[in-house]
Amino acid sequence: MKNLLLSSIFTKSFGFVASLILFGFISLSAQTSTTISDVEISDVVEGESLTFTASLLQPEITSSVTLAYKPFVESEFTFVEMEVIANTATYTINADEIKIPSVSYYLEVRLTTGVVETYPVNVPDGNQPVELPVSSKSEKEKEIIILSPAAGETVSKDDFFISVSFIKAPEIVDVSATKIYLGTQDITEYILFAGDLLIFYSNNFPDVVGSGGQSIRIETFDKEGNEYYSSTRNFTTKSAELIELEADALTYSGNFKLESRNESFNTESEWFNNLTVDLNSKYSDWKFRGYAYLTSEEKSDAQPRHRFFASAESDWLKLRVGDAYPKYPQLIMNGKRVRGVSGGLELGFFNIQSSYGQVKRSVEGELLGTYDAETVPLESNVNVISIDKAKYGNPYGEINAGTYQRDIFVLRPSFGSGEYFKWGFTYLHSKDDMNSVEFAKAPEENVVAGTDMRINLDNRNIIIKGSAAVSLINSDISPGELTDSQIDTIFGGEDSFIDVDPKTIKDIKSYLGKFITVNQNIGPLNPQELSSLGAEGSVQLNYFNNSLKTSYVFRGNEYSSFGQDFVRTDVKGINIADRIRFWDNRLFLTLGYEKLEDNLQKTKQATTEYETFNAAVSIFPRMNFPNITVTFTRNDNKNDIDPLDEEKSIYLVDYSTNRVSSNISYGFTAGVKHNSSLNFTTSSTEDNGATGIDANFLSTSFSFNSYWNRDLTSFFSLIHYNSEISQVKYNYTTVAVGGRYRMLQDKLELKATLRPTFGDLEQQVLDLLANYMFIENLYAGLQIRIFRKPGISTDSITGLTLRYNI
Q: What is the spatial distance between Cα 436 and Cα 406, in angstroms, rounded to a whole number?
């Protein structure tokens, strides 16, 4: 017994001290930003959805926030628009995209001035994305099973019972030491220990269980008294009469929230006021929701900041009117905001999904000056358009360009439920409304048609997926559709502007004129070269503890969809990745290889090849020892230009990057519960190409969270960042310390965070938050953020909120 105790103490001490020792020698990505103060991320666990919540420093000048993310074995980032409400931007990644060993991400913040900033700063050109290690699901979930209640279940408080099974638990678990909490109340004394089953019946203890939202927490221990595993489950209890009544009755809930916020930046101060209304109701198997966010930040000369929608949903119908972020096949449309109508029918074998509305609203431009034919400026950086000569005196005008209203329509019928098979067809049409504004650049139009298929075989051990789409785009529809005589003049003749057979254009007009405006600005004019084709496919095999996936991608240089702004084009190639599981899912080895190339239609000076090799080892011991993940990535990018060719050497690409990262995380009990995490990333780029910019990065982060009791938690983190780009060095260190405390019987919650930064970047950020429940369902909140740059400025955000729940 003594040896076991000494062993346990040694293991815990080693894990914690090793983290501190390593921290002294190895230094996650620099996360300081002038637009985003911090990003909160939910637990990163394989097979579970991942939610990002970014806090904006200056939401009034933020136009949009885009999340870029990718699993470790992929080289391409997926870009999705985050939902921005007030000073937060949120997005949730689907569970099937979260895979061991890691997920990398960064944010792109587009300002109303047109400037784009990133978080972390200067990604990907001069900094690295943030790499989040993905944890394995604990096998202990299969050993200690909460049989009842089910997660999220609504049960009768009179017939409520708890049932926990230890049948699959190992011998080291001391079942008799188990503790069970109902909310904050220890109800272990009421539990019946029946061998490998723990049972609690509420009808034996009628005063113990109340009504409303509830949670149970199971804490288990080994025979040495150490915590072995804990699990929490949320559910709702109601009276049997109320449950029966609600089965066929209309129920509702919701909240109203008022906010007044002052932002003081660079000696300028401005107040903003917001109203949020969120209402939910349910009738039988129907769910209804109404949501509105109205803000004084709404301006007619910018894209909308108001958000609102009403929705109805059942097992077979989904309908949403207002703002929506519909998801279609990745090539065509994924999460882009549409203000209009979205929804679908899910009938099993046949399903249909559709969206119609605005993706951009009209914003009028400004006329800066007028010109005649002789004085019109020809500089490429000057916006000059044709204007009404009778109205303005000259035929040409220089403008500060506005934005046309852009409408979009998407339709996707599909066959199959997706459990074994699904085959879909997607059509997208998007067009700028030429009459929506007077002063803007050329109005555009876009048509995309595609198909996608998924087949699951042998209990999903074989997964086959594929999608393809073709697009047409007209870069200027203002001249209208061409007549046959105009086609003969513009195309193909000796005096024509474009050397294309007029018959080809007439055929395009005949077939496609029903879908898109056909004139000299339509493209591509060479569809036989597949320049407007986007296609990808993959085969995944899950056998013998292996998950082997092979995929192929092809995207022509002229493929374009107004529903998807972030598809990488002019690229083709293969990706092979394999993840091997050992030691009862405690050890994972991941290997990946990708080879891509561009210049598919020979429109560039040279063809560049992109080779990527990935390797990772992840260890999850599930004992008193840290979880460890180590990854390695090598990128080689090279084109076929001869370095000795003086004329073309300015286009030479020849560089390689080696990137190594590691994560050590450790949860332990030393008086109270603690969680610690150490991350480091080092990257080295050798550039032998035309730019010749070598770069080295080294960054480290360490975090330590302590849970003193249910009311008090504290946290500490340290980030150190070093970079050297073309012999220019830059480094800084950020410390964050804070905590949360609940008091007055949970009526008051206080939270404070201090984040000073030292080195080449100096600043201090202080966050203070207080929430207080005055009376039942009425809450008030105060938030203060002070953002100080020594010797430059002291900025602040102060917000007061009032929320009422119904």
A: 9
**pLDDT tens-place string over residues 774-804:** 888 899 999 998 988 888 889 898 999 999 9
User: What one-character DSSP code corresponds to residue 315?
Assistant: S
d(CA 415, CA 709) in angstroms, rounded, equals: 52
Q: What's the whole-model pTM score?
A: 0.84
- Which H helix or E strand runs over 23? helix 2-25
First to last CA, the chain: 56
Query: Token pair for residue 668?
Result: 């332990």
Whether the per-residue pLDDT at 606 is higher than 90: the answer is yes
pLDDT at residue number 1? 40
φ/ψ of 307, rounded to 5, equals -135, 135
DSSP lists the bridge partners of residue 522 as 474
Evaluate whether 555 touches 564 at the Cβ level (below 8 Å).
no
118 with 111: CB under 8 angstroms? no
Place of tokens 């190895």: 26
Tell me the C-alpha distance between 483 and 486, whole Å: 5
631, 614 Cβ separation under 8 angstroms:
yes
pLDDT digits (tens, 9 = 90+) for 381-394: 778 888 999 999 99
Q: How is residue 363 written in tokens?
A: 């914003």
d(CA 204, CA 234) in angstroms, rounded, equals 22
Distance of CA 688 to the CA centre of its chain: 35
Q: Is the peptide bond before 326 cis (omega within 30 degrees of 0)?
A: no
- CA neighbours within 13 Å on the CB side: how many for 204? 10
What's phi and psi for 651, nearest 5 deg?
-100, 5
pLDDT tens per residue across span 194-230: 888 888 887 777 677 777 778 888 988 888 887 788 8
Burial state string for 563-601 with b = 16 or more CB within 10 A and e = fewer than 16: bbebbebbbbbebebbbebeeebbebebebebbbbbbbb
DSSP 137: P
User: Tokens standing for 327?
Assistant: 């998801």
Instruction: Give the SS3 label for residue 513.
Output: coil
Rounded to 5 degrees, what are φ and ψ at 233? -135, 135
**Is the CB of residue 473 less than 8 Å from the CB of residue 522?**
yes
For range 491-504, the mean pLDDT: 69
For 665, half-sphere exposure in the C-beta direction (CA atoms, 13 angstrom radius) is 17
Kindly give, in sequence order, each residue whose CB lies less than 8 Å from that of residue 321, ignoring residues fewer than 6 positions away.
309, 310, 311, 340, 341
Instruction: Tell me which residue of 105, 72, 102, 110 sits closest to 91, measured CA to CA.
Output: 105
683/666 Cα distance (integer angstroms)? 25
Least confident of 34-38, 89-93, 324-328, 353-357: 34-38
505 neighbors 491 (Cβ within 8 angstroms): yes
- The 3-class SS string of 67-110 reads EEEEECCCCCCEEEECEEECCEEEEEECHHHCCCCEEEEEEEEE
Q: Which two tokens stand for residue 682?
A: 């080092």
Across the strands, what pairs with 343? Answer: 319, 354
* C-alpha to C-alpha distance for 224 and 8, rounded to whole angstroms: 9
Q: What is the pLDDT of residues 38-59, one digit of tens each?
A: 788 888 888 889 999 998 877 7
Q: How many CB atoms lie within 10 A of CB 223?
A: 14
Give the C-alpha separation, 169 to 48, whole Å: 24
Cα–Cα distance for residue pair 100/77, rounded to 1 Å: 16
Going by their DSSP bridges, the two strands 227-238 and 154-156 should be labelled as: parallel
pLDDT of residue 716: 95
Q: Look at the block and give the residue holding tokens 């998407």.
A: 410
Q: Measured between alpha carbons, how far is residue 245 from residues 153, 279, 315 in Å? A: 17, 21, 21
Q: What are the CA-CA distances from residue 618 to residues 73, 136, 474 (Å)?
A: 14, 9, 49
User: Rounded to whole angstroms, how far apart are CA atoms 330 and 337?
Assistant: 15
Q: How is residue 500 annotated by DSSP?
A: S
Q: What are phi and psi of 798, to 5 degrees?
A: -125, 125
Half-sphere exposure of 256 (CA within 13 A, CB side): 3
